[in-house]
Each structure stands twice: as C-alpha cells, then as structure tokens.
Amino acid sequence: MAKIKVTQVKSSINRNKRQKATLEALGFRKLNQTVEHNDTPEIMGMIEKVSHMVKVEKA
C-alpha cells in the first residue's frame, strides 16, 4: 500500500473539538511534526477535514 507523509503546518489553537480530535487521531502532538500513514480512504477523509492545517506528500 502507498505511504503518505503528513505535516502539521498550522496550530490547532482556536479550532473546534472535532478538528483537534482529528489531528490527535492522525498522531500529531506538536506543530511541524511529520507522521507517515498508509494511503487509505479513512486516512484521506481525516486529512481532508483538516486540510487547511496540514501538508501532504507522497512517500
């Protein structure tokens, strides 16, 4: 399965609970952190919900 690298580029301060929970579920703990995930529909849906706060690259 294809891998993707996701980097948090904007803070979760002043965001709603669902967006904060989504970032936490993706594995982010701090700003500018990069996590690697499989390219599944579930992960892509989570990324789309917080797309304004993350950057996605193909690994």
Automatic annotation (TrEMBL):
Q: How is this protein annotated for GO cellular component?
A: cytosolic large ribosomal subunit
Any one GO MF annotation of this record: structural constituent of ribosome
Q: What SUPFAM superfamilies does the entry give? A: Ribosomal protein L30p/L7e (SSF55129)
A Pfam family it matches:
Ribosomal_L30
UniProt xrefs under InterPro entries: Ribo_uL30_ferredoxin-like_sf (IPR036919), Ribosomal_uL30_bac-type (IPR005996), Ribosomal_uL30_ferredoxin-like (IPR016082)
Q: Which GO terms describe its biological process?
A: translation
Transit peptide as UniProt keyword? no
Q: Which family does it belong to?
A: Belongs to the universal ribosomal protein uL30 family.
User: PANTHER family given for it?
Assistant: LARGE RIBOSOMAL SUBUNIT PROTEIN UL30M, MITOCHONDRIAL RIBOSOMAL PROTEIN L30
The molecule here is called: Large ribosomal subunit protein uL30
The opening ranks of the lineage are:
Bacteria, Pseudomonadati, Bacteroidota, Flavobacteriia, Flavobacteriales
